[in-house]
Please model this.
Amino acid sequence: MLVELGHLFLAAAFAVSLLQAFLPTFGVLREKRLFMQLAVPLAYITFILLLLSFLVIVYAYIVSDFSVLNVVENSHSEKPMLYKIVGVWGNHEGSMLLWVLFLAFFSILISLFSRQLPEQFKALVLSCQSWIISAFLLFILFMSNPFRRVNSPVLQGNDLNPVLQDISLVIHPPLLYLGYVGFSVCFSFAIATLIIGYVDKVWAYWVRPWILLAWIFLTVGIMVGSYWAYYELGWGGYWFWDPVENVSLIPWLSGTALLHSVIVFEKRNLLKSWTLFLAILTFSLSLMGTFLVRSGILMSVHSFVVDPARGKAILAILFFFTGGALLLFAIRMPILKTGIFFHPISREGFIILNNLFLTTATATVLIGTLYPYFFEVLIGQKISVGAVFFNLTFGPLMIILLLFVPFGPMIAWKHGDFFAVFERLCCVFALACVACFITFYVDSLRDIFAALGVGLAVFVFLGGLADLWCKSGYHKVPFLVRAKKFFRLPLSVFGAALAHMGLGVTLFGIICVATFGQERILIMQIGDTVTIAGKTICFDEVRNIAGSNYSAMQFNFKIYEKKNLISNMIASKRFYSSQNISTTEVGIQSHGFSQFYIAPGRINDQGLFVHIWWKPYVICIWFGAFMMAVGGGFSLLSRWVRVSWLRWITFGVKHIVKGSR
Model:
């Protein structure tokens, strides 16, 4: 009965979302305020109904209700409770329900945090959001119903793929969905302003926080997914240029371009048409990723079960919204002309250059991802586009872009002085050259490209610090004055600097792992040792253990430095009897920002096949991404936190002094 109630909530949410799609739009077109005011309460009702529906399916997983087909296919009574809940979005039907729940959640956020929006505009934004919700609810109800009953009684479930039974899967898919769905708000803002037929820089002020929020979620989602692939799949890498990895990177690149172009729109009232186009494009690319993952076109460990019919339905949704948005964009093009010119050596000029490289990189990854599919359709032969293609095409674009990153925030709006900025960056450039020379002479291989890469990473990182230094007036005014000015800098300035510094940290990690990493493949018996990166690794023992829903053979390793034990490592081979599947659990031991990584292979009379890596500064890859996300968070907070840091510090000091008296 409860399951039927969940389905009823889902159907009711569809009906209410249709009302929300039509009535506010009707109110705007006929100038009837009563209908426009319905947008907010209907958004709340839709969200509540979807939340109740989602909680019903979660409850079905918790109690192992094997009368529900979705639970049978993705759960097991012996599975740990956390992974039972994760199983809700570890499949196609559940993930689509979570997707549409997040869409409704963003409608609530718009209602709460966009009260300053004109009533007419807000009604159109919420109405556009509801059109998207209605389309996906229709798809769920008829093609992806998570509440379908089984035809005959089932005593036990099939269980979730063991690879997906991991703590990272608790947050990785939801974070990605929040990023994808977050860009729907930018899309809705663009459609609303195109319908009204008027756009100015106030629109950019309204939409920029939503771009930041979506970008932050997508950044963290990609970061967590990369780390999951690194430690769970056992191949020793963090990015494989897998097609499904790529379809998350594509909207991130486009969203990064949008994040920068909207700044130009807000500050200089330039790039109107380009910013609106990027808002439409970024969400369209998110929808495209949803289609590719669920259609079976791109095969990956991340993909869902192949169903061409579902893929066609999502493709129809993609064409409807993208095609309709681009048609409206083309009709409204005359109102988007600015007629304002700018000097190429200016901040807006550098941001346009940034957008040129980011959109080219987006197109490069998109073409490399989709080309094998189109080649197979047209020619009938299967080909693959691998890491070599992406490294040789995407890599150079990013290198050139990173060279300009330190200059962008320091150059003036309207008309800048490039040589004055370069003069400010002279010390940074000199330190980057020193890092380059040190790397070249320390590296036994004398790899000039690795040395240049480290130099570029240092240049980008220190460029962010130099930006804060110069904006604080550290090179002009006394210490107390510059300290006061430093703490009064807007949070957005700290956010931009931190995000750019994060790029440098990530690049440093990538260069170090690719160039200075070490690798050993060998057969080891208990007591055998191997030396790697100046450390001795000893294969200590083998133990058989039993988990909650698996059995495992556990391999213990000890790491010595100059005969002193410094750490232990544990790797294992797990067997899940419910699905007759074996998985590899790698052993990872961190030493600062570097890691030892052991992946056990098969075991026989000769011993254990072992793959060992030394990955110097590999943690910098994810730490840099985390810095980018935190930088985005600072920029987002700057909209609400207008009190300077100095004021908070002064307030605290006054209370401390008062208390001491």
